[in-house]
Amino acid sequence: MIFGDFYGCSVSVGRIQRLGYMRRTEMGQRPIALTPDQSPQHRLGYAIRTLREARGLSMRQLADKTFVSHSKVQRWENGARPPKDRGEVDLIDQALGSGGYLVELWQQIGRSVAEPNHVSDAVPHVSDTSASLATALSQAAASDGEGIFVPRRLDDGTVVLVALDRRALLRAGVGVSAAVAVAGFPEPASAAVAEDPFGFARSATESWSGLRLSRPAPEFGVDWHALLPGGRSMLGSQLSLQVHSARAEGGRVIVSMPDQRRAEDFLVRPHRSLLVGAVDTGGVSKFYALDGRVARTKLKRAGGVCEVVAPAAYELDDLTYGIMWAVSNYDDALQADDQLLSETRSDLRAYERLSASAVSREAAPGLNAVAHMWLGSDFCARHILRALPDLPTTPAFWTREQRGEEASAWMVFDHKFPYLRQTTKALGSTSTRAFCIPEDVVRSSPRHERILLFLAVALMESMGIQAQLTADPAYEAVEGFVVAPGREAVIANWVRGDGMWHVDVTARPSIVREFTTAARDVDAGSITAASTAAGRLRALSQYLELPWSWLIERCNQLARYGSSGLIQSRSRLVSAGGIDAACTYVGSLPADR
């Protein structure tokens, strides 16, 4: 049955009935009959096939991902021989991204063998199986597969899967949910309002573009999986969340968890998790977050109810979301490559004996983009510290960070905050650091990234480093440098470069002249020029379109508790010291003129 075309995408429907499910086939192929209601084995096979097709995988590709033969995948899908053990079904579940759903179906096979004459209410009928697949199938929309499948129950009770062509949707610029709505079908169950009782998912996804929330099925104690977006180098990060009702008492928020066992099981797991409290403020909820590991230490039990107290400073807004976004992205990526990164850093130490080097990312194969960033930043910092004492006059610094993603490294990478302290001590006086941030970069940056950029500059100002700013895009291509005007220059660039780093120490007249001119131009025409640090930061907040009084108030609140209770780093290469120092400084500034 064909529903027609919309946005250039054909919409076909395959009926799922007790008589059998005829899967969608291409022209000229014979349909293969599946009978998911025949037995738990067939139900599992039906689910594996449906998810595999939603992922755009052939049987042979799934076999490669799960380290088995093509014929074995065939036997899984036709119900002849289900996966032999939990390890095997775990591999299938991970390869198809079903969030534990296939494991649950596999466990039903064991129950049916143990109790062959007992029909459990927990074992779903075909229609229930189709509805349960909604979450797992909707996750396939983010994969490279061509098919997106949306379950729908017709008026006569028949459940169908609507098959949409994913690539056509993407070419048309239409989101899955929007396309489904246009077609007249309901969104997948993960987006249902009934499953978002506090309005958290709606509020969060409307506030922060790119944030993706999904309901796990089965949930295993997790209310939401949150996928934080990546960036130009960031890779994205995943959090597990529990959301509970909470009440505000003074400067505290008390989160109540009625199911003690579920709360404890969630918080004891080693993965990154977040406990979210929803406080009703006249029909509109405010949300407060606490790192799962911190929440575990604060858990109190009273009358079968668990309670956790969080500071009101941890309210979810652009400040706290930005911090979580930066820390979790950098932390996860660096922790993932920890051993290889350490080995690579040792291998590349030979370059420290050279006064000049330009090292490509190919010198560190296998490392992710964030690990390359960290290596470049670390090497450039040590290069400058080695060269700084030999400069003949007080230098001017030039840095290439333009966005919060790049600038947050000053507050998050473990070596950056100490580097600022060391350079300040080595110079023994105030210095200047210039930025080039064109207006179009500001306009294209989300608010939480602009806040991170502001905090990075504030960290420098707190140490006596006077920040200068030009909006002239002509200076975007200038490399990071330290210049003793008219005398000598130190090149140290790792931001937006062709490789991991480019460093040099040179007295070449043309280069020294270029850097001296750039530094003097920005010094003479800085758009944040003022006689005090507070004045420069106020001008910066105006340029970045950030409310000055709000920044001071929120930073002051957060500084009292620190950011580690909001989100804790796990990598030894990530530190919260810079974030806390920046918030403390901003919170101490005068809110009035």
Q: What's the helix and strand layout?
A:
Blueprint: E1 2-6, E2 9-17, E3 20-22, E4 33-34, H1 40-54, H2 59-66, H3 70-78, H4 86-96, H5 101-114, H6 126-139, E5 147-153, E6 159-165, H7 166-172, H8 176-183, H9 200-207, E7 212-214, E8 224-228, E9 237-249, E10 252-257, H10 260-268, E11 273-281, E12 284-291, H11 292-298, E13 300-302, E14 305-311, H12 318-336, H13 338-347, E15 357-359, H14 369-387, E16 396-398, H15 404-407, H16 409-412, H17 416-427, E17 431-436, H18 439-444, H19 447-462, E18 465-470, E19 481-484, E20 488-493, E21 501-506, H20 509-525, H21 533-543, H22 548-559, H23 577-587
Parallel strand pairs: 9-11, 16-17, 17-18
Antiparallel strand pairs: 1-2, 2-3, 2-6, 3-4, 5-6, 7-8, 8-9, 9-10, 10-14, 11-12, 13-14, 15-21, 16-19, 19-20, 20-21
Helix pairs in contact: 1-3, 1-5, 1-6, 2-3, 4-5, 10-11, 12-19, 14-17, 19-21, 19-23, 22-23
